[in-house]
Amino acid sequence: MPKILALDTSTDACSVALHVAGEIREDFRIIPRQHTKQLLPMIQAMLDSAGLKVKDLDAIAFGRGPGSFAGIRIATGVAQGLAFSAELNVLPISTLAAIALAHHLQRGDQQVIAALDARMDEVYWATYRFENGLPVLIGDERVDAPANVCLPDASHWTGVGSGWRYWQNMSVEVKQLVTRIDGDSADATTENTTYPTAANILRLAIQDYQLGKSLSPELALPVYLRDNVAWKKKDQQ
């Protein structure tokens, strides 16, 4: 079984996970604005607990986005730096796929629309169907105003992720077809608290590793979806 380290800093949560000897260990913390200070110590503690060094790993996985601009940069930079130092490949994993998988593992739903709050009255979102326990992307990952979120067909869907706080602003079609949000009835008061986690990123990364999808560190790029992520604050007013 491959020894893979995974990390995610794409939201207010910061998490590190390790797959070793068929077991997944995870350190998950909700620590807004502390990712830069806490991530490396968390990684070191995780490796120390398993008696491993970075060079003992087979690959490093990370949440490549979408999500917080600064957070994605932190995860990408740390993953690339560790991989370069130990001559390892990396596995960039979608944060939307990770939260879809989290819900599937908990509730077993086969059709999931994952959405993260993108700020600026927009959401990052994607739809997934599950095959053999893994999410298969239907269409593309997108960033849109909530009213522009749409579904590929007339089946029932489950919504998961922080983007569902914009439920009131979504279309009539979405409100009709999304029959549950994060395991609860789809109503305007639902407040979703599902985060991407390193453990679920790791579960997806193991599959990619076995399929030979790991990349050289320089080829692993963050996914922002929004072209204007670098707007200055004055330009957003």
UniProtKB/TrEMBL annotation:
<protein>
    <recommendedName>
        <fullName>tRNA threonylcarbamoyladenosine biosynthesis protein TsaB</fullName>
    </recommendedName>
</protein>
<dbReference type="GO" id="GO:0005829">
    <property type="term" value="C:cytosol"/>
</dbReference>
<comment type="similarity">
    <text>Belongs to the KAE1 / TsaD family. TsaB subfamily.</text>
</comment>
<keyword id="KW-0819">tRNA processing</keyword>
<dbReference type="GO" id="GO:0002949">
    <property type="term" value="P:tRNA threonylcarbamoyladenosine modification"/>
</dbReference>
<dbReference type="InterPro" id="IPR000905">
    <property type="entry name" value="Gcp-like_dom"/>
</dbReference>
<dbReference type="InterPro" id="IPR022496">
    <property type="entry name" value="T6A_TsaB"/>
</dbReference>
<dbReference type="InterPro" id="IPR043129">
    <property type="entry name" value="ATPase_NBD"/>
</dbReference>
<dbReference type="Pfam" id="PF00814">
    <property type="entry name" value="TsaD"/>
</dbReference>
<keyword id="KW-0963">Cytoplasm</keyword>
<feature type="domain" description="Gcp-like">
    <location>
        <begin position="32"/>
        <end position="150"/>
    </location>
</feature>
